[in-house]
Protein: SDR family oxidoreductase
Amino acid sequence: MTEQTQGKFKGKHAVITGGGRGIGAAIADALAAEGAKLTLLGRNEEVLKAKAETLPAALPLSCDVTDQAAVEAVIAQAREAHGPVDILVNNAGAAHPAPFMKTSSEQLQSMLDVNLMGPWYCIQAVLPEMQERDSGRIVNIASTAALIGYKYVTAYAAAKHAVQGMTRSLALELAGRNITINSVCPGFTETDIAFDAIENIMSKTGRSREEAIAELAKHNPQKRFIQPEEVASAVLWLCEDINRSMTGQAISVAGGEVM
Ligand code: NDP
Structure:
């Protein structure tokens, strides 16, 4: 692993969950370009390794973020390799659309496990060292579904709203230290999650691919899909040292869908 010698985050250790693809991969590219040493977490080892090979100093560690013991073990490994964690980006997440009455308690629990408990466990694993050093940046990739409702994703929206409740409350608990926690809330972004939503609309309604894309894109006043790099840009801004007054916030990257 060859470390980048320049950049805003030179020498900082950033952990990105779900860093192998989609929005997480774009965040990894952006942080690496600014000199950060990275740890990429996710379940699929091959995908993580392939992504890490494209970056100057990235450690791929496979881990299911819903397993607290596994999270603690990989964070210990990451610390061993790259030193204490300066930046945690809780990006791993999943959405399973279903009407409310067809959402089982197991499906609700799985949405809470990956979207809320995963970030919770990761924060608990890195926070003691951030507190010891009075320094840290935590960014949760929530969703516009953390701020407003959408039909047929009640369990996902409940979990993402809970992430924002955690973000606001923890921001207050950490306010006496230089540790900030914020959410970035993307609208529909061009990744596998959006592709799954397109397939879902096509199979449920018989609409064409173009019609399904238009159906999703209409949520965004700019009538377009957001690109992962746009989400990454907001994450990096929140991680800058200068932005220590930004805490407990939810920043929508959604073309004006939420304001
Ligand atoms: P992708 O499906 O492309 O990526 C999801 C990532 O999360 C993958 O890297 C996946 O890796 C990882 N992941 C999922 N479950 C787990 C788990 N249990 N443990 C560890 N890693 C896991 O989706 P996006 O990039 O779009 O999603 C990233 C985040 O952005 C999510 O939190 C999502 O809710 C949020 N978001 C996305 C929007 C969109 O339209 N795309 C809109 C609003 C929010 P692996 O499968 O290898 O475990």
